[in-house]
Specification:
Elements lengths: L2 H9 L8 H18 L5 H27 L5 H4 L16 H18 L6 H23 L5 H18 L15
Helix pairs in contact: 2-7, 3-5, 5-7, 6-7
């Protein structure tokens, strides 16, 4: 829809190729995971289901990439942990899958240990998370991707977005359907 060319013209950012979609995905993921876990969740079962949902696409795409490029993978690739080293995985587009696996499991463990965000802090923290995401997106456009921080603030922002229970009144008027 021209967003990349718009950012290049207005801000001078080059190479800004749909990276924002990953941040939107993290927000959606945090929202949906919070919705799904609102009745409580078993941490071990959650971790297993999360792994079974994410691992197939990660390993299939990584194996295809390795077969095509002839590169070799580090042992950390086998446990989807390369981003913890600050390096990019061989299957670079899969960087977000690694964070999508581990960060929600970490959040569930914290939740099971009793860590909660007080209700009074949800909306201010949501605003802070969204502002931080905007900042990290500008940093990303300048060549500093900040993968971990984007994942943390995206998932936390989605969680807080669900908890904020925001409502936007929408009136749909379709004059030609009125009888």
């Amino acid at each position: 829809i021209g967003f990349n060319s718009f950012t290049t013209r207005v801000f001078g950012w080059k190479g800004f190729q749909f990276e924002l979609s990953v941040d939107v995905f993290f927000l959606l993921s945090g929202f949906v995971l919070t919705y799904a876990a609102r009745k409580g969740v078993d941490a071990r079962l959650f971790a297993l289901r999360r792994y079974l949902r994410l691992a197939p696409v990660f390993y299939a795409s990584t194996l295809i990439l390795l077969a095509i490029t002839g590169e070799s993978a580090s042992p950390l690739e086998l446990v989807m942990a390369v981003p913890f080293t600050g390096q990019d995985p061989v299957n670079f587009p899969a960087w977000s899958i690694c964070w999508e696996l581990y960060l929600p499991i970490f959040a569930v463990v914290l939740w099971r240990l009793g860590y909660r965000t007080p209700e009074w802090a949800v909306r201010p923290l949501l605003l802070a998370a969204l502002l931080a995401l905007g900042y990290f997106d500008m940093q990303m456009a300048a060549g500093e991707p900040n993968y971990l921080l984007r994942a943390v603030f995206g998932l936390a922002g989605g969680h807080l977005l669900f908890r904020a229970q925001l409502s936007l009144p929408v009136r749909l008027e379709v004059p030609f359907l009125a009888v």
